[in-house]
Amino acid sequence: MDISQLKKMKDMESELARYKKIYAELAFQNTVLKEVIEKKL
Fold it and tell me: What is the pLDDT of residue 40?
């Protein structure tokens, strides 16, 4: 691997980590909202 490929891989890894964090937050919000809805019904 050359330097540009390594940099691109690092960038992609950080982007993937960001997406995983976003997914975790959305999944948590979804769970909370479902619990709120169930309690209201």
Answer: 84
C-alpha separations of 20 from 1, 2, 10, 14, 25 in Å? 26, 27, 15, 10, 9
- Whether pTM > 0.85 for this model: the answer is no
Helix (H) or strand (E) holding 8: helix 3-40
Q: Could you tell me the residue range of the domain that residue 23 belongs to? A: 1-41
> Coil, strand, or helix at residue 11?
helix
**DSSP secondary structure code for residue 2 in this structure:** -
Q: Is the pLDDT of residue 9 over 90?
A: yes
Mean pLDDT of all residues in 6-25: 98
Query: How many domains does the chain fold into?
Result: 1
